[in-house]
Design goal:
The protein is α+β, with helices and mostly antiparallel strands and 439 residues long. It has 15 helices and 18 strands. The strands form six sheets. It has a six-stranded mixed beta sheet with strand order 10-9-13-14-16-15. Strands 1-2-5-4 form a four-stranded mixed beta sheet. The N and C termini lie far apart (129 Å).
């Protein structure tokens, strides 16, 4: 009897370790049968010890191939020309791609059939198989990288007093039903390939860099590092309201926190581009790739409507008390700027989402400068100040603030201008300074 090898038939003279590659290829393709006991030239020689061959074959398939493919494999005996041949029948599996466990989800571990040959699958073919079996959800799909470590993530969970054992990895979605690591696991591992890039610029344009930083590794670590970097540029400005000193930071801490977490939790990780954070003198911008989830519009986001792209990742951030409730981030950002004319800006394209937070102190200082500059030319205010001397011999700065209705900074500038014009004369110094008419 003469047989021919083809896409679904493979001959093996005897059992060899390479049989598992052919099993993987059949399971990833259209299935097939491996005949052990047939030479390369098609001559049937049979198998001397059938039971031992079947045992070794099934053990190798069970121990070496991931995910478990044994449900789709049968090993039996067929008599050909009076000789016993072991036939390994493989169906196409439902959890493609199957791979050699020690090699991982890489071309050297994943095989397919091309004609009568077993060949390594390309990375594109591997990704397509993952998408076919896992759907469009990135975080639940199997990670191409299976050699993952979680030292930083485990330490973070411990700091937050949240369990992070093997059971939790399954319940949180880091390990799929087939026992392999998901892309969510990749995002929380030291091997995470996605990064956050931060840059501080001179002025309000991307022309001159002051400093750059790139955060890598577990997303939990990246979030902490990115926030610490931003905090270095979130300076504090002091104002006096009456006798009380009021400190105000450039950016509301809650707005910074929510914008950063939004950029991490809601981005589309199927894109390889980094999350970008740019700091300018007058604003800070957070740019994430992926745009809005299908079916959502910017108006929906502004109202607090939330459809999670990365549900499992958001759940982990929620358990770690990094986020409070879904959909509250953008409304919180807007509320933190209620007392300002300048408001946060939200821009959306098909593949990106940007949040721009105004520097509160930058615009307050600009307003003061404009007011002071205007006041220099307003002699009616000078007349209001001069009118105070109708009932008193001396005045102080607070009198000017009250009668003219200006801030401390504007009152100082107004008095300084009147001194320069020779309208007033200063008496005393420091906290006891007062002013009188110049004769």
């Amino acid at each position: 009897m003469k047989m021919n090898e083809n896409k679904t038939i493979e001959w093996k003279r005897e059992y060899t370790d390479n049989i598992k590659k052919t099993v993987v290829a059949f399971a990833n393709s259209d299935g097939g049968a491996i005949y052990i006991g047939i030479q390369d030239d098609g001559i049937i020689i049979g198998v001397a010890d059938v039971d031992d061959t079947i045992l070794r074959t099934m053990n190798a398939i069970r121990d070496a191939i991931r995910p478990d493919v044994t449900l789709f494999v049968e090993c039996g005996i067929e008599v050909m020309e009076g000789k016993e041949v072991v036939v390994v029948t493989v169906q196409r599996g439902t959890a493609c791609p199957y791979y050699i466990g020690k090699k991982g989800l890489r071309p050297e571990g994943v095989y397919v059939r091309r004609g009568a040959s077993t060949v390594p699958a390309t990375e594109t073919v591997i990704r397509n198989m993952i998408q076919e079996t896992s759907g469009d959800c990135y975080e639940t799909a199997r990670s191409l990288e299976q050699q993952l470590t979680f030292e930083k993530t485990a330490a973070y969970f411990e700091k937050k007093k949240v369990a992070f054992g093997e059971k939790q990895k399954i319940s949180l979605g880091l390990v799929g039903i087939d026992g392999t690591y998901t892309n969510l696991a990749l995002l929380l591992s030291e091997q995470c390939q996605h990064t956050i890039k931060l840059a501080a610029f001179e002025g309000s344009k991307k022309v001159v860099f002051k400093e750059r930083k790139e955060c890598s590794g577990s997303l939990l670590v990246q979030v902490e590092e990115a926030y610490q970097y931003i905090e270095q540029y979130n300076r504090t400005r002091a104002e006096f309201k009456g006798l009380e000193r009021v400190d105000r930071r450039d950016y509301p801490e809650e707005a910074l926190r929510e914008a950063l977490l939004n950029a991490i939790v809601h981005r589309d990780y199927s894109f390889s581009a980094s999350t970008l954070i740019s700091l300018f003198d007058n604003r800070i911008e957070f740019v994430t790739v992926g745009g809005l989830v299908k079916g959502m519009a910017l108006n929906d986001i502004m109202l607090g409507v939330s459809i999670l792209r990365n549900r499992n990742l958001a759940n982990i951030f929620y358990r770690l008390n990094l986020i409070e409730a879904y959909g509250t981030g953008v409304p919180k950002i807007i509320e933190s700027y209620d007392d300002l004319v300048q408001k946060p800006r939200f821009d959306v394209t098909d593949n990106a989402f940007k949040i721009a937070l105004p520097n509160r102190n930058f615009y307050v200082e600009k307003e003061i400068e404009q007011i002071v500059e205007k006041d220099f030319n307003k002699t009616e205010r000078e007349e209001q100040v001069l009118g105070l001397f109708n009932t008193r011999k001396f005045i102080v700065r607070k009198d000017v603030e009250k009668i003219v209705g200006v801030s401390q900074a504007t009152a100082i500038m107004l008095l300084r201008e009147m001194l320069q014009k020779g309208l007033l004369e200063k008496v005393g110094d420091g906290r006891l300074v007062k002013y009188k008419l110049k004769k």
